[in-house]
Amino acid sequence: MRIIYLDYQTKSITGGHKYNDAFLDYLKGLSGEAIIKTPSCAAMYSSWRKLLSPFMELKRFRLFKRNSLVFWGDTSYKHHFLLAMLAVLFKKIHSSIIIHHFSYLGEKGLKRYMMIIPQYIYISFFDDIIVPSPYTFDVAKKLFPRKTIYYIPLPFKHNFSVSNDYEKGNLLYVGTIDKRKGLKYLIEAIALIKRERNDFDFNLNIVGKITEQAYYQGILEQIRMQGVEDKVKFLGRVSDEQLEECYKKAELFVFPSLLEGYGIVLVEAMSKGLPIIAFDNSAIPYSITDGENGLLAKNKDSQSFADKLIEIYGNIPYRHQLQKGMKETINRLKTKEDFETGIRDYYSVIRNE
Question: Which regions of 80-218 does DSSP assign to beta strands (E)?
């Protein structure tokens, strides 16, 4: 069976990329087949070339042999819509799609409907859906109640440690710098606290790659206008050793994301014993229960986020209480064995069709 993965991201930046890498590595060993990987469409088709990409991507059609197993990108529907339609009509292949999150959920109004309709049709072309999280499974099941959906869980280690070397008021954010991550609400929350509370002394370290330059420039302007330039530092992408040091020194982990399919970084922060403040949207409440293993603010509410920061800031007994809940959460996570079992079960079904 020829295995093809379309829209492959060669640089693993997000948790979703790392999941895909691990999935393909294990599938390659399981099947004994080399996996054909085509380049990321987002990297290949920038600016005006995006308009031509649906036609240019039709060249991938020649890769599809009878009984091929093809994985489609969950964010590449604009590029692969025509290719997927042709594949369904003229080739006897098995099409699977790994979905990390449904991007339309981060929009509202007319834009939401303009995104969901083509995405829904695109996903309808495929034989089955693979999801890595319970939240994405629930969303997929509501949208496609008759389609086969495989929940192949993200694998984690049951490691938990606590740093006693943290610095009071040291806030840490880890993630990409783009609109979906909601950093503007975090800056607003910090500015609110600065105006209202003289006893809250903080600094914010932002770790991660800038993926939307215009958004980043807007955040820099917001920081300047709010007068918190001396409190916020962008560290960019850092080494594993530097990131470990950031976790050790942080008192709190702040994550104002507006849409997550899982939020792997939340688990990473919990495994370090870091109290988390996040919004109560998408997959985040699947990992965090307010007051038990972290704190949840009202979605897109900067004042609520600021209130949560004040609630936990310097509160050592509350910190210890939340760490107990974090440890219990980490011990319940799915493991590498669960992940590999899921892939084996999935491939067994595909191979025997």
Answer: 94-98, 128-131, 148-151, 170-174, 203-207
Give phi and psi for 24, each to the nearest 5.
-65, -40
Residue 323: what pLDDT? 98
Give the pLDDT of residue 11: 78
pLDDT of residue 58 exceeding 90, the answer is yes
Tell me how far apart the alpha carbons of residues 333 and 330 are, in angstroms, rounded to a whole number.
5
Please say whether the beta carbons of 334 and 21 come within 8 A: no
For the whole model, what pTM was predicted?
A: 0.88
Query: 68-77, 110-119, 261-270 — which is least confidently predicted?
Result: 110-119
Q: Domains of the chain by range and CATH?
A: 3-155+334-351 (3.40.50.2000), 170-331 (3.40.50.2000)
Tell whether the torsion through CA atoms of 140, 331, 167 and 315 is positive or negative: positive
Q: Quote the CA–CA distance of 296 and 341 in Å, as a whole number.
A: 33
Percent composition of the chain: helix, strand, coil (DSSP 3-state, to 5) = 50, 15, 35
Q: Name the band, by pLDDT with cuts 50, 70 and 90, for residue 353.
A: confident
DSSP structure class, residue 282: T
d(CA 293, CA 319): 9
